[in-house]
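Hey, I was hoping to borrow your eyes for a little while. No rush at all, and the record is pasted right below:
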Amino acid sequence: MSKPTDVKTFRIYENLKKKPSLDNKSFKTLNPEQVYDVLSKHSNETVTIWFKLQQAWCNNAYNTFKDYDTYLILVYLVNQVFQKYSDRFQYLSYGEFYEKNELTIDKINLIEISKNLNIPKETIRRKVNYLQNQNIIFRKGKTIYFSNAINKLQRPANSKTVMANFLEKNSKILEKESWFGRSYSKEEIEEFINKYFTICWQHWFRLQIPFLVRHRTFYGDLETWNVWGAIGISQFTDYSKQVKERIVDDPRTYADLYLHLLRHTPKNGINASSISEISSIPRATVIRKLKYLLKQKLVMKNKKLEYMLLPSPKNIKSFEQNYMHNQKHKADFVTTIFDLMKNSSFKIE
């Protein structure tokens, strides 16, 4: 597995350490394999907080345009801005980034976006035109800009707080290991994200964009994935409660949790109205997506018209591989952020 920081970020560390006001200690990294192993042994707890983070982020994403693909394209373009600062070995704080009246994008390559997001080129063209018609992006000569509308549409005020809570709970698990050191409070983590925002959020998008693309590819669209996710979270909540009450054994690893969750039969499922309320997706759309999930043998329905996960879903091997792949990348992200906090010259006062 590759190191959790890329060459450009590493060079930022080296550039910063040349300044006399910063600590000149040697750069080292946490081992992502060790981080993964520890978090896997606490799979029930770590998956719980991961679901909360994803649900909060995805609901905000959907509510922005009532369309996941448009938001996915928007964050892809914003991440290009983050990358541009990284290429120049620069970073901006949360306040500095969103106080800018205009942010430039070097170019919009529809073919490249289509390939990276696995969305048809004509769909990309239509969504980009929508962003232009809404004056979210615009051209001046050959240069493309974000307008200050980005402050309202993509400013992750709530997500940043949920992220800090997610990382705090991971750090409390990891601090039991001698190689990790002390844990961090959510206040410390949010302060760090605020100060080094474009660096931290670039790494978040490096996790989140491929994560969404994988699910979009598997389920056909992100609305279907979110409907399935609401069913999965409902079932996991029931299972997790039984673990805490010691009715069932605590899972030993991520793989163990996956098998236990599929075999778990909750007392109640979740109905279409509840899914719509949780996800903000219209009930008619939810019902249409549920019919698709039933047809694809990914969920089942009981006599009370409540939905649950199917114990042996279609394409179960691909399903399992996708799940395990996500856990690895999640551990890489956690490793990267704590490397930034512990082992780089980026510090909070």
Remarks:
- The CA atoms of residues 91 and 199 lie 6 Å apart.
